[in-house]
């Protein structure tokens, strides 16, 4: 089964903030490349989204976390859709 991936407004703002941060602290080219790679990784959730771990941030079995280069993508699995809820940088402990 293929799911439709929907990026919620909060997650879209997260992606914009990530792009802005990388472009200010490194370069626009690196920011663009990173966001493209991150979006590709998010799009891959359309196939087998349950491969990702159950979210650390909720008890809901259908809310999952995907890790990509130090970022956590929190998403919810519906019957036919994947809702990207938020994207944030993991903190090192």
UniProtKB/TrEMBL annotation:
Output the superkingdom of the source species: Bacteria
The record ties this protein, via InterPro entries, to:
RelE/ParE_toxin, RelE/ParE_toxin_dom_sf
Q: Keyword annotations for this protein? A: Toxin-antitoxin system
Which Pfam families does the UniProt record give? ParE_toxin
The protein's name in its UniProt record: Plasmid stabilization protein
Species this chain originates from: Sulfuricurvum kujiense
């Amino acid at each position: 089964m293929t799911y439709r991936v929907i990026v919620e407004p909060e997650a879209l703002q997260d992606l914009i903030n990530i792009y802005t941060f990388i472009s200010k602290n490194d370069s626009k080219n690196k920011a663009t490349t990173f966001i493209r790679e991150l979006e590709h990784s998010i799009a891959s959730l359309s196939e087998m989204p349950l491969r990702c771990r159950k979210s650390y941030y909720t008890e809901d079995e259908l809310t999952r976390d995907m890790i990509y280069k130090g970022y956590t993508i929190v998403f919810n699995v519906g019957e036919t859709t994947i809702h990207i809820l938020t994207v944030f940088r993991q903190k090192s402990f």
